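Record format v2
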Amino acid sequence: MLRRIRSQDVWLALVAVSSLVVLAVLPVLFGIGQDWGTAFASGDPTPAATVGTAVAVAWLFQFAMAVVAGVGSYGEVDNEAGMLTIRPPKDVAGGLLLTNAVGYALYLLVPFAAGFVGIAVGVGSPLPLVGGLAVVGAILASAMALGYPVGLALKGLVRRSAWLSRLKPVLGAVVVVAYFWVMFAGHLFTVVDAVRPALERPPLAWLADLALVTTPGAGASTVGAAGALALSLVAVPLGTLATVRAATYAWDADRVQASERDDTDADGRTATGVSDGESGPTRLSAVLGIVCRRQGTLGVASTALVRAYRAPLQLVFVAAPLLFALPMVDGIVATGTVPSYAPWFAMLYGAWAAGVAFPLNLLGTQGGTLPTLLTARADGRQVVHGHVVAAAVPLAPVTAVLAAAAAAGSGRATPEAAVIGGLALVVVAAGAVVAAGLGALFPRFEGIDVTGGRTATPPSKAAFALFSLLMAIAVTAVGVLADEVYRALIHALLTEYLPFGLSVTVDGLETLSTVAVPALVVAVPVAYLLAVRRVDDYRIE
Amino acid sequence: MTDPAIAADGLTKRYGEEVAVSELSLSVPEGEVYGFLGPNGAGKTTTMRLLTALTRPTDGSATVAGVSVADRASLTERVGYLPADPPVFDELTGREHLRYVARLHELPDDDAAGRIDDLLARFDLAADADRRIETYSTGMEKKIGVIAAIIHDPAVVFLDEPTSGLDPRAARTMRDTIAAFADRDVTVLLSSHVLPVVDELADTVGVIDDGELVAEDTPEALKRRVRTDDEADLETAFLDVTREDDVTSNPVEA
């Protein structure tokens, strides 16, 4: 068990970072609560409206989480065949609902506890804690009971629909991007404003009454509080019944088989007359065939891309840095002004993503099929070429267009923007090659749990850290040499943040970059040769 | 006299202090089915990995189809390997996976497509070829693994538990396929715990225990070793030669 927990190192790191963030936020919540409590104690009930909005938003958020839990892997049964033949579906569904509710309890309880302890301190009485505890219970019970069956019903719908099953990866990506857009680009308040009328009306408004009914001076309605409690008590059995029905609908579905043949006639022949099982992958192979000279390269590249499309969660780590880009993109949309660093950010992300997506763990992501790869005629060159092609073909053009567009948008002349676009093509391809070298040198075979039953095999920590560092240095050095605006920006940043009293002049920065760029250029063929040799010599020991 | 298809001389693999395979020497003529038996953890899989150049020997040497196992680049087109767990990508369809393997073997797409269709039909998988492997049963995955191991027409095939998880009809197809290999002078190293299959197909049986080859002979001779009447079977012989107090450093000649 301990070994299994240790193997989830990526998640443990995320949990540690998240915990630090939460620990930093809790005192803030306490302080806000204390201010509100002081206001209530002085006879000013004004903060009650804000408390009401916060509580209603928490309910909406919990409801959305419950839907996601139902439609996602938390709505699935481990060892389904065994479990559903031992216990009736109602027991399993009820158990899952309870498990999920308990699982989310801490997420609600901790921030609410911090806030209501603050209110209690401000008021000078422990009574607000009773209301706080009651509203946490009401939110958790009602939102989970109503949201979870909705998620399960959606799951059943997707399983029954070939069209929705096929679109699942795209729909999932849209939902994730929308979530992060709202949460990290400052749109949460816009959404809250849009739904405010619903938040301020019963029954959601009653949750505020329940939260503050025991807080002296808050002016909460006892009737509203009773209404919230009563509705929660009604929602639980109704939601549980709905959960059982929705779970049966989802679990008993004759899943649409994930066939990739969509244009076959009755004889099983494709429209083109070629016995070819999958039109999408075939088109993909045709495109990749333009740049792949060897069959082995084509096989590796097309397989990597098809697997990524059908199981996009394998690449969840590639998307993480985009969170940092959301505020920038949002700012561009809002102000119409492109920051001067945007083209270089686009280039850095494109090159980094190209490396992390496939080549940075080119052996580890083979999983159990590694013997097939190693006992095939395809040699190290084809394996490396295939992974670099899989990363560069989709990402290099996109990165080049984005970098060039950002350069033009930020006021650079057209020739300069074109140079930046061209550089992006080279840097992305070079980044993928460097990643292959590091990935072959530091492979990782242990997977981590991405969602319930699914795992991903991220790059090793050594490969990840070294590659990220090299890419940051490479793009910064290239940018300093090629772009005056970027040079000034980097100089300003270093002047501000260099530790231990260190400083660097603009000339010094150029000199450092002039040394770094040739070294990094040399690193590309070295990494290539290293990767090829490692794959050719790799043995399963 | 032709060179043996598989020749191992003192093949040894140690993991630190632990000896997985010890001084293993064997010689398998071309076109022969060599049944490779042994208890769990005896060293069968390690031996197969050594002979397919997936693992580097600590000591000793071996050639497969005339190529040293130290030269994997030359060996790959001559060997096919089916590990005990079929090596497949769940996200692909059966046909896609086989096309991927065919491409790894540098088979032209047009040639590969015909061969894939033939093999899928032979293993009764044609109707399911365009479904994702994640929806397959264990037996179906095994069939895809076997087809992938032989798609490039290798001279020597290493099969680790090829019939486990197969329904009777598929197991029959597998046995016929292995028998057909021998008819085409393809050499097979067959590891299986299904002893009747080994008894039916193998020309020679080698028994490995604790990393050592403790018995090697024809199935009939091995069976006679434990019983002199007609009641003897390979299971009894296997249990006899792998008794804990019967492990010797030298192969037993019946």
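Chain A touches chain B at residues 255, 257-261, 264, 268, 274-278, 281, 285, 294-296, 298-300, 302-303, 306-307, 310-311, 367-379, 536, 539-541 (CB under 8 Å).
Confidence is low (pLDDT under 50) at residues 262-277 of chain A.
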